[in-house]
Model the fold of this input.
Amino acid sequence: MLKNHTLIRAMLSALVLCAMVPIASGSGFAIIEQSPSRIGTAFAGATANNEDAGAIYWNPAGIASISNVEVIVGINSILPSFTFKDTGSTPIGGGSGGDAGVDAWVPNFYAVMGISDTITAGIGVFAPYGLKTRYDADWIGRYAAVETELVTLDINPTLAIKLSESLSIGAGFTAEHADATLISAVPLAPGVDGLATVEGDDWAYGYNLGAMCTLPCGVRVGLSYRSAIDHELDGDIRIGPLPSEGGTADLELPETAAIGLHIPLCDTLSLQADAAWTGWSSFEDLTVVKDDDSILSTKDESWEDTWRVAVGLTYQVNDGLVLRTGVAHDQSPVPDAEHRTARIPDADRTWLAAGAGLDLTDALTLDVGYVHIWFNDSDVIDVYDPTAGAALVGTYEGDVDIVSLQLKWAM
Done:
């Protein structure tokens, strides 16, 4: 009974943590910082992870190897920087917006319990998508965007079955809450601006599947799939001093698929690799519709599907200490400068990561990791008002630092 009470208290704490605001560091507005024990390899091999409960997110089949009770609480400090350099925006006037990046804390929580010799159940609570950009209120692109925020919360119960000593499968159900806010400036009178604010939220549902196989040579292979989740964000529209109106916006969060490898090179050294596909082509446009079915605003996005590849190494120093390192390349779904926007100034990025795991006691393990992400410099031609010829034209530069840690309690 004490074990169950401990699990319930930990789960409630994680739900409170997940109310915090995240910011995307994966491509598009994905947040892939879902397992601090894997961040040290830049998430290389995460889809082949059967070593801790974080497998719930990456590949539910991975928890089949856990026969005891295990609880993980993780936190990721994400420190982004995005700056804009004007090269010909119209109309002229206003500053460059300052640093649009907003620091954030992204939590993770996982709990797993062996039900029998072949069945393991678990639950994960995490934020797989999120975005936060904020510019100075008087910047040159204020009519395109002042603030953009997307917050998601996923609750993901999972079940895994060990079919044999070398083969496991898993599946999970996902309940996801999404909450979005879009703020931009609007001209109310000559020289006088107001703010247009669109807010909406929604619950929607999906699933994830996985399989994991260990070959006779010790190589572990993982396959996983996470379904798309369709949201209809329902909320309010406020424009300056005018009365608020109701409105909706459709948002389809993409499906993903991945393959991962864990390859032992010797008793103490192993190689990890991952390739992940994201179906970002589902994000065709961002359209806000009023309750009277008239369109308040629409923006053609025309995003493209992407790939992320990662390679890492893990070195087991001794029974209680493991070191990790990895690199990754993450494609941007934004096809060209004409589809890059001030709200989501996305670009291809490169990851360099390092981390470590230390056993504090027989039951408690601390994992830490650090990542630096370089964004390619990217041009933007955001024509946000075609009738007036208004456009944001320039170049974005960006980078992100991430510091992650987790505590794993196993008994």
Remarks:
- The two ends are 14 Å apart (CA to CA).
- The chain has three helices and 20 strands.
